[in-house]
Structures are given as structure tokens and as C-alpha cells.
Amino acid sequence: MRKEITYKIKKNYPLILAYHRVCEKKSSERIASSVKQLKWHIQFLRNRGFTFYTLKQWLNGEVSSNSSKTAILTFDDGWRDNYELAFPVLKKFGISATVFIITNYIELDAMPEGMAEIKGRRFLTLKMINEMSKYGIDFGSHTSTHRVLTKCSSQEAFRELANSRDKLNNLLRTNVTTICYPKSQVNDRVISLAIKAGYEYGVVTQPFRKQSNGLNSPLALPRVGIYSTDNKLRFLIKYLKYLWNNSL
Ligand SMILES: [Zn+2]
28-243: which CATH number, 3.20.20.150, 3.20.20.370, 3.40.630.30, 1.20.1300.10? Predict the structure, then answer.
């Protein structure tokens, strides 16, 4: 039986930022933000009165409901630089974040065979995941192998969803309820399979509901994607768009 997925994005919807890699210096790799950019974003939001939470804290209602200034940092794929470079920044600011793991990639020192190799593309180790988890970083699934679920058969998609969740549950001894869909590709069929696999929430990187394929569901929560091209001005524009949409 499919759960009711109608969900209205209400006022006070948090600013959920979606990062991938974090590099020491500005990189031409689209999915890489620099340490300097990350620090600047956190400071920018902090200066405007934002408080940082993990996705889990917000979903569990640990955020004051009248707080209109909630920010959530999320990192996709489980890159090793999240531990080496982003984690020290988070600790310095005393804030937490949410990381979405491709579970079959844990411990990999390079991209799996057949996939483009780019310098520094390594993935989190178990030890790193445990240390981050102990600090308060929250982990969700980004499937087992990052396949685009809308293009998989239902059986394959279910396997990607269920196996990755089982693996994380075992590793972290927790109940993972959040899925981040590879390439943000999701439809009603994938949502049904995600629910069947035990997920209650899902995230996409499509800023606001008008752009989120008409989906209006806790299994398709919109985030704001942050890329290497997001200089201060572009970040400011994304921030203002968020404020505008949140005030409607
Ligand atoms: Zn991804």
C-alpha cells in the first residue's frame, strides 16, 4: 500500500544546499566547490542569522518550527575530500551536515572501471564515515552504484534502493530513511519503489517545486545545487531566489 505522498512545501522550508566534491582550490570540475567557497557560504548564511542543521534533525522536527532561517548542507556521492577538506570546516564552524553515500563505492581509491577518472576522485572509507557519524554527520543513501533509477527496470531500481539502505543500516546501526536520487532523476514509479524499500524522504536538486517535475512529495524534497561556477554573485542570486520562493 502506497503511503500518502502529498506534501506542501510550506513557509519556513529550509535552504538545503547540495554540494558534491570539495577541493583545496577552485577547480574546473563542475561538481567541486573550493574550501574557500564553502567557508564563504557558511559565513554568509551565518551573518544573516541562519542556523545549520542536518536533514535528519529537520525531518525529525528538531528545528524550531517558527525558525525561518534554517540551512542544511548536503554532500552527494561520498567523496573522500568531504572528510579531508569539508569536515574540518564544519568542525571549525561547529556545524553538521548530511552526506549521501554510493554504498558500493565506499573505500574506492579511484572511479570504478569504465568511468571517467578525474584526479582526486576517491571515496570515503568506513573509518571516515564512522568518525563523521560520531561527530553528528547524518548519512543517507545515494543508491548502490549511482544508476539513474528512472532508466532501470523496477527490479533493478528496487535492488539499488534496498541494498544500499540495508548496507548503511548495518554499517551505521541506524535506520536510514533518506534517499538522494542519482542525477536527481525521479518519477512516481521510483518514488513507489523507494517507499517499498523503506525510505520516507527523498531529495532532488531542483531548487523549487515549480521546477521539480510537478512532484510535491517528502520523497522529492528540493535542494539548491552549488557548483564550481557559483561565484559570490551567483550564490547571492540563488539565495535571493530561495528567499523569494519561500515568501510566496
Ligand atoms: Zn551523485
Answer: 3.20.20.370
